[in-house]
Structure formats: C-alpha cells, structure tokens
Write a structure and sequence with these properties.
By secondary structure, the chain is α+β, with helices and mostly antiparallel strands. 29% of the residues lie in helices and 32% in strands. The radius of gyration is 16 Å and the shape is globular. Bound molecules: coenzyme A (COA). It holds the Pfam family Acetyltransf_8.
C-alpha cells in the first residue's frame, strides 16, 4: 500500500530495517507495560521471527511504521477482523461490514498524550474506510488502559463489550474492552475536530 500522509505524520509500510527500532521499542518497559507485557521483552531475533513473515505481500496483517518528519515514532497494524481470534458475531459485526481490526503503539513514551496516537489511528481509519472499503473497524484495549480508550474515543470508537479476563498480560488475566468505529462515527469525529 502507499504511504499515508497527514502533514508531518506519515504511516508507511514496515521494512526489515525497522526491526532494530521495533526491538528497541518492544524492550522498553514503559511500552511493554501496555503492549506485550514486561515479562515478554523482544530482542532483534524475536522481532525478526514475528514480523518478517508479515512483510510478505500475502500476509493477513499489514504493518506500518509511523514517522514524524521522517523519524520513526510508532507502529500500527491492521487485518481483516475474521483473522482475529474473537468471533465477529460477538461484536455484532457481519461480513457485510467488511470489518477490520487494528493494534497501535507510540514507541516513544515522551510523545504519549500529545495527540499523536489518535492522529495515527484517524489516518489509518481514513484508509480502511475510504480505500479498503471497511464499514467497521474493531480493536481491544485492556480495561485499565484509560489513555488508549480515550485516544480511540476521540476518533470515533465506542466501547461495545467488556470481555472478562480476555488477555493474559504480565501473568494476569485482564479484562478487555472491545471497541468499534463505523464509517458514520468516523465522519462525525472528523467534523468534531475540524
Ligand atoms: C495508546 C496510545 C497509542 C495513544 O496515543 P497518544 O498519543 O497517547 O494518544 P492521544 O494523546 O491522542 O490521546 C490520549 C488521551 O488520553 C488522555 N489520557 C492520558 N492519560 C489518561 C488517563 N490515565 N486516564 C484518562 N485519560 C488519559 C489524554 O489526556 C488524551 O486525551 P485528551 O486529548 O482529551 O486530553 C499511546 O498512549 C501508547 O502507545 N500507549 C502505550 C501502548 C498502548 O497502550 N497501546 C494501545 C494498546 S490497546
């Protein structure tokens, strides 16, 4: 896919030479606290084993690196929701919705809370709703990850279902909110921030 651009922010396809940056982010305890878990830091070898297959053209997951003025700052991936473990019907999603899922993190914690994460998600939603033809996009956020939920709500996601103990994170079964955005709410959110 082409690089997505919003001013100085770009989302571009991940490359093998991003793996070292990914390993730096995914071994930072501050990032791992919310994405992956501090008990599962990733080495360059781990990152290569996990993400190299996702660079293939036929990969079910598309991986993007976020850059601010050409400097890598974060990661976002998307996939058809039917490839996700959670049954689409649980969320009331039908194949007619052509539902997609996404996961995101900003790799530099000093940038958290600056609006970057919600801009990244908004830019990707524009692609999924506009180009890919998704009618709904879903994601999961740990129930105590208030910052992430707020960032998602700002771009049109709403909490649909609380799944108890959905994710084992740092050895604890954590409740997760499943959140959904649809084309309509995305458009309204865009109007709201104009
Ligand atoms: C989640 C993440 C991508 C969001 O990106 P971000 O740049 O921090 O998000 P934004 O600045 O756009 O929005 C965050 C919002 O949460 C608010 N917030 C921050 N801490 C909060 C808290 N403890 N409780 C409630 N809201 C909080 C911020 O004030 C901001 O809202 P506002 O713009 O209305 O003031 C980023 O914080 C991140 O990478 N976190 C670590 C990894 C992670 O949690 N990934 C998501 C897994 S589901």
């Amino acid at each position: 896919m082409d690089t997505l651009v919003d001013g100085e922010l770009a989302l571009r396809p991940m490359r093998a030479d991003d793996f070292a940056t990914m390993a730096r982010w995914l071994s930072d305890p501050r990032v791992l606290t919310w994405f992956g878990g501090r008990d599962r830091p990733m080495s360059l070898l781990d990152v290569t084993a996990k993400y190299q297959p996702r660079l293939a053209a036929d990969s079910a997951t598309t991986c993007l690196i976020a850059e601010l003025d050409g400097v890598p700052v974060g990661y976002v991936q998307f996939y058809r929701w039917r490839d996700h473990a959670t049954d689409a019907s649980v969320l009331g999603l039908s194949t007619l919705d052509n539902p997609y899922g996404l996961d995101v993190f900003v790799g530099r914690p000093e940038l958290w809370g600056t609006g970057l994460g919600s801009r990244m998600v908004r830019l990707l939603l524009g692609h999924l709703f506009g180009t890919v033809g998704a009618r709904r996009v879903a994601l999961a956020a740990m129930a105590h990850n208030y910052r992430a939920q707020r960032a998602y709500a700002k771009v049109g996601f709403r909490r649909v279902r609380l799944v108890p103990g959905a994710e084992v994170h740092e050895g604890v079964a954590r409740d997760e909110w499943l959140m959904v955005a649809d084309r309509g709410s995305y458009s309204r959110a865009e109007v709201g921030t104009a």
